[in-house]
């Protein structure tokens, strides 16, 4: 297989990224039984081929996907990778075994989630940190997009995050409010959930 090292690049504000990245979710979650060794081998092979943009989230697993990515990238020069992860969706299992998914983008949760993600990934900083999904009652805590983005901006100032993004369920008004607080490097959309916002952008 040809290397992706010379593949086209895209510029997202101050960040240059490969045109093709690897979404790591499927290596641990949602698509049947996971094989850790195979997942690690897949990520490492992608990196060898020049696919150095890796995308994960703390909700994938939950938590196990970031842990697997951390194992896969151990020993890879940090400046050769662009690691993206997300916070804002909290997944727990109810006593009856059914999933309980809630949204939380409060400042306190943002700071705590970032600290935990850094530990699982084995990194000193995250290249792109996303608000995975904006929350609103009854499926989440009541908070404003401004609260989430302000907390993320503080993480940038602390050196724990390089760039910030938003993902899914945000409106064009949310994006304008967010960008007024701190430049939004990336918008990750998910099908019809964000198609209206994508058209406006």
Automatic annotation (TrEMBL):
Source organism of the structure: Micractinium conductrix
A Pfam family this chain is assigned to: Aldo_ket_red
Protein name: Aldo keto reductase
Gene Ontology molecular function terms on file: oxidoreductase activity
Residue ranges constituting the NADP-dependent oxidoreductase domain according to the UniProt record: 20-185
Keyword match Oxidoreductase: yes
Gene Ontology CC: one annotated term: cytoplasm
Keyword entries, A-Z: Oxidoreductase
């Amino acid at each position: 297989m040809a290397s992706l090292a010379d593949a086209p690049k895209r510029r997202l504000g101050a960040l240059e990224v490969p045109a093709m990245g690897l979404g790591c979710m499927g290596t641990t979650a949602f698509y049947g039984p996971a094989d850790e060794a195979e997942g690690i081998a897949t990520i490492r092979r992608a990196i060898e081929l020049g696919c150095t943009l890796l995308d994960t989230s703390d909700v994938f697993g939950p938590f196990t996907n970031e842990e697997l990515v951390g194992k896969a990238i151990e020993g890879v020069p940090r400046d050769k990778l662009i690691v993206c992860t997300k916070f804002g969706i909290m997944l727990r299992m109810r006593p009856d075994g059914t999933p309980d998914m809630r949204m939380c983008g409060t400042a306190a949760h943002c700071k705590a989630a970032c600290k935990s993600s850094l530990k699982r990934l084995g990194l000193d900083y995250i290249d792109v940190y996303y608000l995975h999904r904006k929350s609103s009652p009854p499926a989440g805590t009541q908070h404003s997009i401004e609260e989430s983005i302000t907390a993320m901006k503080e993480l940038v100032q602390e050196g724990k995050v390089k760039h910030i993004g938003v993902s899914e369920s945000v409106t064009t008004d949310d994006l304008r409010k967010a960008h007024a607080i701190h430049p939004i490097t990336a918008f990750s959309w998910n099908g019809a959930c964000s198609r209206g916002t994508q058209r406006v952008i």
